[in-house]
Structure formats: structure tokens, C-alpha cells
Design goal:
The protein is α+β, with helices and mostly antiparallel strands. It has 2 domains: 1-103, 2-Layer Sandwich (Alpha-Beta Plaits); 120-240, 2-Layer Sandwich (Double Stranded RNA Binding Domain). 27% of the residues lie in helices and 36% in strands. It has 4 helices and 9 strands; from the N terminus they run αββαββββαβββα. The protein has helices at 25-36, 67-82, 157-175, 222-240, and strands spanning 41-48, 54-61, 91-95, 120-130, 133-142, 145-154, 180-191, 194-205, 208-217. The strands form 3 sheets. A 3-stranded mixed sheet has the order 1-2-3, with helices on one face. The protein has a 3-stranded antiparallel sheet with strand order 4-5-6. Strand 8 (194-205) and strand 9 (208-217) form a beta hairpin. Helix 1 crosses helix 2 (67-82) and helix 3 (157-175) packs parallel to helix 4. The radius of gyration is 24 Å and the shape is elongated. The protein starts with 24 loop residues before the first helix and ends with a helix.
Length: 242
Amino acid sequence: MPRSMDGQERAVDESPRIGSLPLPEDLLRQAEGLLAALTGVVSARIVADERGQIEEIHVLTDKRVAPKQTVRNVESALQAQLGIAVDHRKVSVAQTEGPPEGATAKIIGIGQLTGVRRYLFDGYEFERKMPQRIICRVRLRLDDQEFLGTAEGTDLERGRLNAAVQAVLNALEAAEEDVGFALDGVKQLDVFDLPIVVCAIYGLSGRTRTYLCGAAPVTESVEHAAILATLKATNRWILSTR
């Protein structure tokens, strides 16, 4: 082991570094595959010079992960999996609003979905079961099919919100046999002096648990907004599991 000027042994990082050791073609393609598998990444391309040294890394992502975090993920993945130390200045990240043509949407978060398979809200109702309890029924539509979900709650604002969201989740579980959902919470907030409803949900598929969120402005009622917020979150995730 090399020694410093004071005679102490010091460790040397022997991992290949950009600008030092050339990388074989098969390792570069392996690195591209590794980056393409990272969360939020739609595609990845590594540009190397004629000597096999990495000059640029171009990554196209969706909106799930911020660009700075993507750069950190790229650095960590290449170092941990392939022993390649990357200068973050070599990594460029571009984000897309939607998937490229022919690709499957994998965006999870707040927003709208257009032009893809999704469940649509077809109506809801509340029924008072007893003085302090209510039942919420939500109807969803997928193409020409209709699905009904019901849930019970307390006749308070939070109870009605929870029941509205849970009714949507129950309808989705009836329609999608291979996935499940768990409600983490739903709440009305004031954002820029406007009321919105935000919901947080776990999507369950096999052994995978994905944290989902959705938001919708209150235009008719808080329950109506809660239903729309739930669909905004879950439609994305259901599509990503296909």
C-alpha cells in the first residue's frame, strides 16, 4: 500500500474513473441498462470517445424524481454496481411530461392523465346508516364497464373524506384483482388561498409497496375532490403495473 510523506499508509481508490481508464463496449452497454432501470428513468445513453472513456451521460426521466436526485442516483448506481466513478458534471438530465411514443406510462404523482387507459368517476352518494355513521358509494367506469365501491365512516368531515377515498379504493380492488391499496391519509388544505384535497395511498402489488399521492381542488364538495384526488394517484400506478 502506498505511503504518504509522513510515512502513513493510505488507501488508493482503484475503481475506474472517467478520463483515466478506458471502458470496454460491453461494460458501457451494461451501464446504460443499469441506468435505464433506475426509478423515474425513461431512457439512458452513454457517450464515449474512441478510447472508451465516458464523455457524457444523457438521461431522460419522468417527473417522479428531481433532476439533482437523478444525478446522485446515477453516480451511486454506477459506483456501487460497476465500480465506475462518475463526475456529476458529465451527467445531463432531461424530463418529459409523458412517455415517449409506444412506451408505457410510469408516472406516479399529482396531475392529469390523457389518452391512456384509466378509471373515470361516474358518481357518488352518501347514506346515513345511523345518527353518527354514513355509507359512501362511488361508481367508476372503465370503457363500458361500471364498478361500485362502498365504505363506511363517521358522519364527520374526516370520516366522510376517509369513506369517499376508501370507496374508490374498494371499487378499484374489485376491478383489479392483482393489486391492492391501503389508505395512509386524506386532508383538506389551503394552497394559495384555495382549498384542495390531498390523499396519500399505498399501492400494493405482490411484495412491492408504492407510495402514491394525488390532489384535486374543491369545486363541488370536499368528498368530490377526495374522489378525484384518489383517481389521479391510483390511475397512474395501475397503468405502471401493466
